[in-house]
Amino acid sequence: TREQIAYNTQKSDVIKYNTLIIPAGYSYRVKLADGSEVMLNAGSRLKYPVSGMTEYREVELDGEAFFKVTKSNHPFIVKTGHLNVEVLGTSFNVRDYADEDYVETTLVSGKVKVCVGEESCILESNHQAVLDKKNNILEAKEVDVSEYVDWKSGRLNIRNKRLEDILTRLSKWYDVYIFYVNEEAKDIRFYANIDRYSDMNELLDKFEKTGEVEFRVKGNVINVMTK
Fold it and tell me: Cβ(210)–Cβ(169) under 8 Å?
């Protein structure tokens, strides 16, 4: 389910904030006071100014969001619990969920600066910065951005991904828990292009038809095992 809210530009010497929390199974689009647009994925939280944002453009993100930032002489800054992303005008995706080991910043167009403590890197279009939370290592690489941003159009674009990574994303969409009967099932890799609003059991059937994995669903718990 996707909903939307928009704010008008308000000039104020006092900065006032709103916090938008998106539950599992939902996504939400918000248009900020400076004209920038943010699409929030399931299980995400965004804190943002609703007044005084003409010059002070800073938001806090927990989870995943796609940003389309309006151009300005004042930088737009996205803060997560692990890094800062600074831009002037561009479109990009940031994913930083508390229960995941990596933070991904994926740049679709423009240029952004990703900062982790004293370390930083500049991203250009079609590149991604990945932060390993455990080792605090930041790496940049070229990617097919559609794989990382198609979620905002209601698609799960899978390109040779580990099953554990796929089901981690699905668990947030469908508000389910994943239990692995066989640890080796986590590393099975799949390709798929899936409508995220389809019935969950239909998605699981697609993976089972490969003959490599089996699912047993009990309420909101999915048990995963190799065949």
Answer: no
